[in-house]
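input
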Amino acid sequence: MRAIAALLPLLPAMFVASASALAVRVPLPLTAHTEVFTNAGIMLTGTEGARIYYVDGLAQLKAQLSADLPADPKQAAEIVKRRARAMGAALQTRAINASEGITRATYYGVNRVPAVVFDGHAVVFGVTDIAKARVLYEQSRLQSTPSGTRRAP
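output
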């Protein structure tokens, strides 16, 4: 037992061992695919490994590019062009992220944020700590039978 206890700190974090019971429990792996749908006003935590979509990204870009423009259309157009050039590749990246986010959210039926979609089929709404949302999802999976039906509480 002492040898096992000495090895515990060396085991990867995903393995939890109990030296007294000599039992090793291997939890379900993190979901293969985690997508988060949010907006710029929501602070997220625990996002490691998740794909984050800002569904208000196009509106944010429009606001950033058009802020405080003069009334003259030619001057305004020139300022917008300068701002877009200054943003460089980030402009395209943000626009693509927002467009993909809107498309995927529509496909999944996500109609509010924050929403965390796991493996393309399970959604957790209203949780801003993505690591916590993962725990909720994994607990839900553990409560399901192998056929996918839910156990009675």
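quick obs: The chain has a mean pLDDT of 80.
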